[in-house]
Structures are given as structure tokens and as C-alpha cells.
């Protein structure tokens, strides 16, 4: 049988991984897929640069649209990133009857509903294992491997850059800005790291996980997104003393009333396996009603790890593209006519526990005032440490851990506590999850 | 569309989980699969007991063969365990054109080649996610999620009973026999725990992982199997002091010359994520050439965790059974006409590192004799600790860690060392893997 013809859109890091791994594992891939997978051509903005990176065995074009719709192409692999022109190219490829494989989480988190609807209408597959957690087959695990479960929640370290920074901050006791510079020097953070450190990249991925876990449309605009730029070394240290690690988690949870979708720094018990995921590695915990907790760990980025996911999708499409479209795995795990209309909950309705750090006057009555406010708001305290004030100091750090409470109540309590004259600096609030 | 009709063979723990979860998640399963999945009937040896466990909403029969081949049944779920009559029933179901879902690792490890060939010839699917690591979707991960990789090795904690025992031995400093009794009292070990503690169960699962990782037939008879019954508390303690944990691992590795397939207690660095998998949990590390290391963690046994895997298979079969058989995922990950004839290597050709504990006379020259023998056999030493002999003691423990070496050389070295008059007890040898 003629090999399936693949077009690559983009010639960056991941594309070079795809080219390399496809060539290296060609024989084994054929044995798996039962049919050859052949790279037909690559579209690149800068053909000379592309040729230098990928060699000149393959035709390289600058006409992305012509390649995406070329009649002899079976599968278009979109590895450009960004929204435009990726969106137009993917939609054009679908309209031309091509199957699409993409690693583009931003595109799917924002325009996924449009893209999946177009693919559904045309009877083609859009596969996106590489869009979340790189080489970890987490899309497949949630969509197929755990299909017997009602998923209760997912919590994941799904951005390697921020996990690298947090690991270094903890290991070496350094502050955020210092570690960020090191991470940039080492290539773990980009020159413009905004999307990573502000949590946007993680929120794109959490949005996709949310959709396939709960059968809702992708709704990136409803995600709560908080990055790690405000994290201080002191809080990492206090968390450690209390038996917790701070990780940037993407969390999505079905509460029955609605769905939580949020990215923020999170205290998690140091004994949890995911708390021990260090450096640029990713890991995702999925809690199903039947299976309980499961965890998936691996490299979340990089040339060959991401290529691993892209090629798994190519093999999947090769194996399954002849199935009638009614009997394939649905793009978002649930049949398109059976999506849920459960709303994404606004952040002030989210229920979680909290770590609070207050800089307070070292005088009697302060604790009484604070605990009174918490009690008024119906917030119960799980633990509390007050550092003894140093010699000659008149202020001290007070750390409060709370039980689960509604975020709106916590906002109200923090607002009130902040106005107390004995509270001397902005109150630090970090959410805390037991993950069980 | 008429729901797919399911027959359950067996009415034990897993069957009751399947019945419960199918009922509880019915609506969600329909939304995922696009078609109903209906339990038609159950075959049980003792219908009264089955009725007590599963309720009487479903017809219960004692005629397994009639149910396995009944014309209205689409999928036969075999949950009986054991070889016979499970094998005959599965083959009869296949011959009758039924798809089969099974959790039976012993059956597949021993008769998988026959069963998959029959299924292939008949164009039906045999799905077996539940056969390895319970609720963890490891079969799907290796067979599909990592299809872009050449798998280099897999190492897994794939028997919960023995991991529970080893965790307790380490935590509490107790010996094997004591912990085994506790595990039996707690239900973590069966009344006859032989298959678990002797490593047989883990070897069944490793055999299946080996086949889908490397595209070779299942070859349980070639597996090296060593359990945990001889493990002593002292070795767990020494390993700890050296920065290692001892886990019962199922290991399979492609060396290029052949394939290693072995189950034995193994020292692994305490800093590895898998070293921190405690209690009855399972975890599997898969090393792919493109993705690097990935890890999959979850409950490896139990009613609903195993049911989770069985139902995922039911959803898979529901989604994919209409695809033409040439374009489904092959049972053993590779196309049946493209299997590899790489041999399973005999244990004495396996390459690994070693932990040795010797009870030696506390006198000069002993170490020289021992290290001379190791050097003669081409074995290089990675580390060595000699406990100081206590007051009045004339013997002491000597611990040697070696670099990688061929098992045959180690056998020769141990044989020679054992004959030295200064070596006072049987030499303890535990294999050691860095897992990187």
C-alpha cells in the first residue's frame, strides 16, 4: 500500500524532532502501523534555515497554504504555534479533506470548538496528543484509557519552565528573578517567558484537559490564570517547614454544580508523588471515580519528546482513518452531540484550602482579631505558625493554613484582615490542595 | 442503535466492580461511546453467591459455554482467571465471532499467541488493558501512546501485594514472614500467596509488556522469575543506607542482541520517582528512544480499578469494532506479519549491576581475596562498605556494589567467593538498576 503522505507546517524544534524520529524509526513504525508514513514536504518561512536544520532530502516550500491543501497530502502536521496563520491553515487543510495532527495548545484552547466542528463535518481526524504535556500520552489516557470513569478532577504540572524555576528556587533558596535568569541562560525559559511564567501556557493545556475530562467545549476565556512571578522564597521555605511543596498546577474539577478550571501556584503535601516531580519534567494526576488516582509523568517539551506524541498521532491516524467517522474516538472524548453544558465556575465560587502569610505586629490581640475575621467568614483554620519576633523586631510572620472554603469568603476575609492596623504588608495567599 | 450486548464470565470481585461501574456511569459511557453498553447476562459457578454479590437484576447462568457463544452477545468479558476453562471459553467466543475483553494475565502470558492468532483470523478484537497493572492504562500507553518510539526498556512495580510487603518491611523494619501474615490479615495478600510472592504474577504481566513493547510473541516460559521470599530486613536496611530502595520489578529490555525478560527484587536509587511508590500501588517506567523516561502510576488491583480498565476496553471495542480488521490497533502493538524473532535472552546473558552481602571473617586479606576474584571475572566495583565488627565479634557484613556485568560472570564470581573459608554464610545477591 502507498505510504500515507505527510506535510509538515513549520520547521522549528519539534519539526526537526519529527523528521529525525520518523527517519530513525521508519522500519519499526511500518511494523506498528501496517503502512508506511512518508514525509512529502515541509513548509518553512525561511527555507535556508530549514534546510540547515533538517537537511535537504525533503522538498521545502514557503507556500504553507498550497502545501496544506495539496491533493496528494493525507495528513497535515501543524507545528507552527500561535493562532494565525495556524488557524487558517488548519481549517483549510480540514476543508481539503486532510487529517490534521497539531501540537498547538493555544490554537486548540482558543479555537478548538470551531476546528473540531469543521473536522467532524468533514469526517477527518484532528489529533493533538502533543498539545498537552509533550511526550506523555495524557490525552489518550484521559480520553480512552480512563473512559470507564467519571473523571473527578485532574491536577497537573504541565509547564516545564515554571517547574524548573520552582525546583531551583526550593533547592537553592534563590528568588524568582535570579532563577529566571539562570533558566533563560540554560534554555529552559524563553527570552520572552511571559506565557510560561504567567501561567498562560499551562492554562491552554488545562483548558484542553478540562474539555476531554468532562465533555464540555474548550473555554479558555473562562480559565483562572495566575503565574509564579509573585512567589517569594520565604513562602517556599515556610511551605517546606509545613510539609508542603509549591507547584504551579493546572487544575480542573467537576463539582457537580459546575467545573473549576484554574492555574495557580499550589501547596501540595510533600509526600505526594507529584510533589516530587522536579526540574522541567511534567506530571498529571487524574482522579477517576472507579480507578482512583492515577499519575502520568514524563518530558513535557523538547524536540524528540514532543515528536514522540506527534508520531503516535500519525500512527493512530494511519491505523484508524479508514474507520467510518461515527466509530472513531471523538475528538473531545465525548460524542459531539452529547456535550455537557455544565458551566465553568467563576473563581470566587471555587472551593479550595489556603496558605496565608501575614506580616503582623508582634503584640497581643492580633491573633484574636484575625481569627475572629476568619470565623466571621466561616473559614476554619487547619494550622497556624507564628514565628517568634527576632531581637529588637516588632513584626513577625504569621502563617495560617485553612480548611476548604469558598474563594469569595477568603477574598472577603483577606480584604478585612488587610485593613487591620496590625497587618503591615500585603497578605500573601497561596491555594492549597491535598490531591486526594 | 441497539446497545452492544455484554456477557460476563465470572462473578468475583472484578465482575462486581464492572457491574457497579457500568450501572453508575451508564449515561456518561453512552456519551463517550456513542452507543449503549448493556450487560446481558452473567455466568457464575455459584448463582446464589453471585446473586448475593451482584443483585438479581441480571440473568445468571451456570452454563459458561452457552453464554460465551450465545448469538445475541457482542462482547464476552472473561473475568474467571486461571487457564482452564478460561482458555476454552475465550477460544469458543472468538470462534463464535465475539469480541473478547479479558483481565486474565496468566492466560495471555501462556496462551496469548494462540488466542491472538484466532482473533486475527476471525477478525475480532481481544482487549486486555486490565491484565497488566489494573486501572493504569499501560497497555494503551505502550501500544499506542508511545507508538512513535523504539521502546528501550520497561521496568515496573506490577504486583501490589509484594510492593505492600516490601513497603512495610522497610517502614517498620520487620521481616518478610511477619509482614506477609499482616498482609494476609489485611486482605493485601491471598491465603495462598505463592503467585504473588514468588514473582509469577509479575512475570505474567512483564511477559505481556515485553510482547507489546518489542513486537515479539508472548514467551512466559523464557522469563526469569525470582520472588521476594528470601529478602531479609538487613538488606533493605543496607540498601537504604546506600541510597537505594528494594522493589520487586518486572523488567524487559531490548539489548539489540535479544530481549531481557526478568522479575526479581531490585535495588533502585531512592531518588527515582518509582522508588517512592508505596503500599499496594503499581507504577511502570517506560523508556522510549524519543520520549525518554515516562512513568504511569495507579492502583494495580481491586474491584473498581480493574473494572475501570475492563470498561475502557468495552468503550474501545464499541468505538472501533466496525473498523475493518486491517485498520485496527494490532493486539500486540505490531502487525501480526511483522513480529520480531529477537530471542529472549537466558538469564546468564543478562547485564545488570549487583548488590552483594557477604558474611566474612574479620581478618586481614579477606577483602584482597574477594576483590581479586571479582577482578578475575572482569567485574568492577562501584562501592563497598564494611561494617566494623562489634565488640567480641569475629565476623562482619561486607556490602559490595558492582558496575554492570554479565550475570554469568557474577555467578562464577559468587561461586568462587563462596568457597573461601573466610566467607561464612550464603552470599546474598540482589540485582541493581539505575533506571536511566
Can you describe what's shown?
Two copies of one chain form a homodimer. Chain A has 436 residues and is α/β, with parallel strands linked by helices. The first copy, chain A, has three domains: 169 residues, NAD(P)-binding Rossmann-like Domain (Rossmann fold); 162 residues, Dihydrodipicolinate Reductase, domain 2; 82 residues, Alpha-Beta Plaits (2-Layer Sandwich), CATH 3.30.70. Chain A has 15 helices and 17 strands. In chain A, strands 7, 8, 9, 10, 11, 12, 13, 14, 15, 16 and 17 form an eleven-stranded mixed β-sheet that branches. In chain A, strands 3-2-1-4-5-6 form a six-stranded parallel β-sheet, with helices on both faces. In chain A, helix 6 links the parallel strand 5 and strand 6. The longest helix of chain A is centred in the first third of the chain and has 18 residues. Chain A is elongated. The model of chain A has no long low-confidence stretch (mean pLDDT 96). Chains A and B meet through helix 1, helix 2, helix 7, strand 12 and helix 13 of A and helix 1, helix 2, helix 7, strand 12 and helix 13 of B. Strand 12 of chain A pairs antiparallel with strand 12 of chain B.
State the major sheet of chain A: 11 strands, mixed
Number of helices of chain A: 15
CATH homologous group name of the largest domain in chain A: NAD(P)-binding Rossmann-like Domain
Q: What do the pLDDT scores of chain A average to?
A: 96
EC number (chains A, B): 1.1.1.3
Organism (chains A, B): Thiomonas arsenitoxydans (strain DSM 22701 / CIP 110005 / 3As)
Enzyme class (chains A, B): oxidoreductase
Protein name (chains A, B): Homoserine dehydrogenase
Amino acid at each position: 500500500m502507498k505510504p500515507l503522505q505527510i506535510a509538515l507546517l513549520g520547521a522549528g524544534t519539534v519539526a526537526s524532532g519529527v523528521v529525525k524520529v520518523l527517519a530513525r524509526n521508519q522500519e519499526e513504525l511500518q511494523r506498528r502501523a501496517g503502512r508506511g508514513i512518508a514525509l512529502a514536504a515541509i513548509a518553512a518561512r525561511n527555507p535556508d534555515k530549514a534546510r540547515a536544520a533538517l537537511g535537504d532530502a525533503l522538498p521545502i516550500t514557503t507556500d504553507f497554504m498550497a502545501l496544506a491543501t495539496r491533493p496528494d497530502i493525507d495528513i497535515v502536521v501543524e507545528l507552527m504555534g500561535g493562532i494565525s496563520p495556524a488557524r487558517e491553515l488548519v481549517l483549510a487543510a480540514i476543508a481539503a479533506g486532510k487529517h490534521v495532527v497539531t501540537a498547538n495548545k493555544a490554537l486548540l484552547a482558543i479555537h478548538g470548538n470551531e476546528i473540531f466542528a469543521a473536522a467532524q463535518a468533514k469526517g477527518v481526524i484532528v489529533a493533538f496528543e502533543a498539545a498537552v504535556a509533550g511526550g506523555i500520552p495524557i490525552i489518550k489516557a484521559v480520553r480512552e484509557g480512563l473512559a470507564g470513569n467519571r473523571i473527578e478532577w485532574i491536577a497537573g504540572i504541565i509547564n516545564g519552565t515554571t517547574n524548573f524555576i520552582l525546583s531551583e528556587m526550593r533547592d537553592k533558596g534563590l528568588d524568582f528573578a535570579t532563577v529566571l535568569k539562570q533558566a533563560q541562560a540554560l534554555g529552559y525559559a524563553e527570552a520572552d517567558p511571559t506565557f510560561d511564567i504567567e501561567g498562560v501556557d499551562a492554562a491552554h493545556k488545562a483548558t484542553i484537559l478540562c474539555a476531554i475530562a468532562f465533555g464540555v467545549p474548550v473555554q479558555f476565556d473562562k480559565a483562572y490564570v495566575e503565574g509564579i512571578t509573585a512567589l517569594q522564597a520565604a513562602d517556599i521555605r515556610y511551605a517546606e517547614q509545613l510539609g508542603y511543596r509549591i507547584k504551579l498546577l493546572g487544575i480542573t474539577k467537576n463539582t457537580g454544580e459546575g467545573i473549576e478550571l484554574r492555574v495557580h501556584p499550589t501547596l501540595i503535601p510533600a509526600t505526594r508523588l507529584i510533589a516530587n516531580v522536579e526540574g522541567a519534567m511534567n506530571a498529571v494526576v487524574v482522579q477517576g471515580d472507579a480507578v482512583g488516582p492515577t499519575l502520568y509523568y514524563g518530558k513535557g517539551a523538547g524536540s524528540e519528546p514532543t515528536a514522540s506524541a506527534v508520531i503516535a498521532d500519525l500512527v493512530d491516524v494511519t491505523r484508524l482513518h479508514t474507520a467510518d467517522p461515527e466509530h472513531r474516538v471523538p475528538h473531545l472524548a465525548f460524542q459531539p452531540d452529547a456535550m455537557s453544558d455544565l458551566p465553568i465556575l467563576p473563581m470566587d465560587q471555587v472551593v479550595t484550602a489556603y496558605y496565608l502569610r501575614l506580616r503582623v505586629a508582634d503584640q497581643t490581640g492580633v491573633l484574636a482579631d484575625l481569627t475572629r475575621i476568619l470565623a466571621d467568614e466561616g473559614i476554619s483554620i487547619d494550622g497556624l505558625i507564628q514565628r517568634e519576633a527576632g531581637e529588637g523586631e516588632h513584626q513577625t510572620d504569621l502563617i495560617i493554613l485553612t480548611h476548604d472554603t469558598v474563594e469569595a469568603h477568603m477574598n472577603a476575609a483577606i480584604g478585612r484582615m488587610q485593613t487591620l492596623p496590625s497587618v503591615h504588608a500585603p497578605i500573601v495567599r497561596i491555594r492549597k490542595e491535598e490531591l486526594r
